[in-house]
């Protein structure tokens, strides 16, 4: 996968960076952002089963970086040759790709594609320069708050402010879910992800695992860690059981001894009985005996 993405990325540079070159180094994010964006689109086109087109992983990574107080605008001024290496960072690559993805969704894919060919600057009655300057000339991204008003018309108030990870949040309020952010208490995100035991897609699990990893570190060696482990294990077991059953039913066992041993050691009695029956009704038992 990595090799395919690198090849696609470098092929994209034949257009974004070589044939069409930014005027100055401060716009390096244009060529690197487009190449990074299309390395996912191109890889998805070549190998659809990898499910690469959503760029969700890129978005989550750059939000972690760009939410820090020491982040910087994606477009950086370059005055000396020694400044050039500095602009080739994850903000240029990943935020660049995320912003281009956002722009493509705002304009619509057909118009976005025509705009790339003609280098047009307008789409859907939206001033692209005005929209993108807000994202490229200042660091970070907004957090949007929607509050329901106490009125009969069921109206809401929408506000936004720049999101910055709050490193002091844990000190001020130890009940906060994420010590770096300070917006949500533990119960809200944990309630949201309670459905994961029924989720079989990779991307929701991947997104949740990032946040759960941080919470696991926060609660480690505290009296509440066992409760947290039990809660997450319910969701993980649900996914693992369905995946294990799929492997066994579909016969997709390149290393069957690993699947069987893992199932026996980690799953409950029902899955153990299922594996035991499957073991006796297949030729895998001969394979396992040969491994001994």
From TrEMBL:
Pfam families given in the database record: Peptidase_M1
Cofactor: Zn(2+)
Gene Ontology BP, a term: peptide catabolic process
Annotated GO CC locations: cytoplasm; extracellular space; membrane
Keywords, alphabetical: Hydrolase, Metal-binding, Metalloprotease, Protease, Zinc
Domain Peptidase M1 membrane alanine aminopeptidase, chain residue ranges per copy: 3-118
InterPro entries (alphabetical): Peptidase_M1 (IPR001930), Peptidase_M1_aminopeptidases (IPR050344), Peptidase_M1_dom (IPR014782), Peptidase_M4/M1_CTD_sf (IPR027268)
SUPFAM superfamilies, alphabetized: Metalloproteases ('zincins'), catalytic domain
Superkingdom per UniProt: Eukaryota
Gene Ontology terms, MF aspect: metalloaminopeptidase activity; peptide binding; zinc ion binding
Protein family per UniProt: Belongs to the peptidase M1 family.
Name of the protein described by the UniProt record: Thyrotropin-releasing hormone-degrading ectoenzyme
Organism: Triplophysa tibetana
């Amino acid at each position: 996968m990595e090799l395919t993405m690198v090849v696609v990325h470098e092929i994209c540079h034949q257009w974004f960076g070589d044939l069409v070159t930014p005027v100055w180094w401060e716009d390096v994010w244009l060529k690197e952002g487009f190449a990074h964006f299309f390395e996912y689109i191109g890889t998805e086109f070549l190998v659809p089963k990898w499910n690469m087109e959503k760029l969700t992983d890129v978005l989550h990574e750059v939000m972690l970086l760009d939410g820090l107080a020491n982040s910087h605008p994606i477009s950086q001024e370059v005055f000396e040759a020694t400044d050039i290496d500095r602009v080739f960072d994850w903000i240029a690559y990943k935020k660049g790709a995320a912003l281009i993805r956002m722009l493509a969704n705002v304009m619509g894919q057909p118009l976005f594609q025509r705009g790339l060919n003609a280098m047009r600057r307008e789409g859907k009655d939206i001033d692209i320069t005005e929209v993108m300057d807000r994202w490229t000339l200042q660091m970070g991204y907004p957090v949007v708050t929607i509050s329901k008003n106490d009125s009969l018309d069921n109206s809401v108030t929408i506000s936004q402010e720049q999101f910055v990870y709050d490193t002091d949040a844990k000190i001020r309020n130890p009940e906060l879910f994420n010590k770096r952010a300070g917006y949500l208490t533990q119960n809200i995100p944990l309630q949201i992800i309670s459905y994961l035991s029924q989720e079989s897609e990779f991307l929701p699990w991947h997104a949740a695992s990032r946040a759960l990893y941080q919470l696991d570190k926060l609660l480690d060696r505290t009296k509440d860690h066992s409760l947290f482990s039990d809660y997450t294990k319910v969701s993980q077991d649900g996914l693992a059981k369905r995946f294990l059953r799929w492997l066994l039913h579909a016969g997709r066992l390149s290393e069957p001894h690993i699947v069987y041993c893992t199932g026996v050691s980690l799953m409950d009695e029902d899955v153990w009985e299922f594996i035991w029956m499957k073991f006796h009704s297949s030729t895998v038992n001969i394979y396992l005996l040969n491994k001994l």
